[in-house]
Design a protein that fits this description.
- The mean pLDDT is about 80.
- By secondary structure, the chain is mostly helical.
- It is globular and about 45 Å long.
- The relative contact order is 0.23.
- Helix 1 crosses helix 9, helix 4 runs parallel beside helix 8 and helix 6 runs antiparallel to helix 7.
- Helices cover about 85% and strands about 0% of the residues.
Length: about 250
Amino acid sequence: MEDLGWLGFLALGLIAFGGAVLGGLSGFGAGLIVTPFLVPVVGVKGVVPVMAVAMTFGNLSRAWVYRDQIRPDLILRVLLPSLPGVLVGGLIYDVLPRAPLAALIGSFLLISIPLRRWLDKRKVVPTPIAVIGISFLFGLVAGALPGGGVIVVPLLLGLGLAGGALVGTDAVIGAAVNIAKTLLYGRLDLIDGPLLIGGVLVGLCMIPGAYVARFLIARIHLRIHTALIEVMVAFSGVSFLWSAFT
């Protein structure tokens, strides 16, 4: 990280800001967009812990922006089953070597695009069993990979959330999950001082993006920014697969 230079940190800051804007518009995409640009700086093994720290700041800022629309009753319903999944996912992340990990992250990013579209077309029936199962799956994916909003957002939609209530409630859940990830990665010695500082710097750059997203959320067509996110996520997936096989 010390070899990156101030221009490199400036570029990462702008990317983090842009990712936060897109994530604030839809509830997903921020971490997925920023992730591949961190790999040359922190390596494949360090990118998920760094993003756990960064997304804690990003989610807390979104939660603050939409604090008056958050649904606390739904937070616990999703969060409690997701935390055991985070533990399992974090342990899986710890034992995976670099190349398979890069291939797994890249494959997930590419799969997340058709998965999100498929989930959007299916009405999630929020039965107690469905909420527990999907929440645990969300925690499992979030614990091992960057991003998990593609799984939890359809569940929140099925629970009746939309607009600012969706983004704000998802942000609180995301912040809690990323705090749990950060603590877990610390216990597993996956986060050291430089990675922690890098995560904080990226996270701080994401904070103003939440405010810009709130300004834009009523002024931009949903399909436009969703298509942009999908292009960036696809690029991210290809870059990870390239890293894995080269």
